[in-house]
Amino acid sequence: MKINKRAILPVALTLAAMCAGFSSIVMSAHNEYVWAARLIILSMILDGLDGALARLIKGTSSFGAELDTFVDMTSFGIAPAVLAYEACWHHFGLWGKVLAGFMVLSGASRLSRFRIIDPLRGQGGFLGLPITCAGGFVTCIVFVAYSGAVQEWGWTWFSLTQGPVAWSVWIAATLMLVLQVSHFRYTKASKHPVVFLGGIALVIALFFNVHLLASVAALAGCAVGVYFAFLSPFLHPPGAKPAPAEQPPEKPAAAV
Fold it and tell me: How far is residue 149's CA from residue 143's CA, in Å, rounded to a whole number?
């Protein structure tokens, strides 16, 4: 396989995103939920940078595109599911396991369909909610719960394991997982500089040890996720549907 030297740097960013996603899983296993959340959001930004850089320097490659899919599954499907289960969903017994499994299976189904029917790799919009939205929403809300800001603000009503807030948050998250495999069409928001730069600002804010700044940024991320998931298909519909990739003709079966 011939290596495109221009693809080396974008692929390096993709691998860095993969490492961040895997490190998040390790942090969740050690009950370091705040750092686990930070690493998922960091992976999200790195995952956006690699594609943008590859297109900018003409370093796109089939290898990088396929590798990106595995990063998405690891960082935005598995890592948020592990984080949410370890931090909150294990309190729900069997239903917590079902929800975590549903998050992984929905993400895998979403990405498999994406690889088959979208030859433009999302540049013309997405069929179904992008996996980063649900993963980011779950990540940010867990960050708020464990950052210490809830206690500092005196929000005694805020709980992700019981009560109306928990029901509302996890029902919204479940609906997002359903939308991932739906036929609603979404625009690629990260193509807009304001949105992408806002995401970078969110990452920077999450790494500050100031509860107010970090947690307000995470709450803002949750609000954007809800808006994008439930309102943007109607308020900001994407353009024309991308043409489906042509499938190679099947070879006739050999006579026995």
Answer: 10
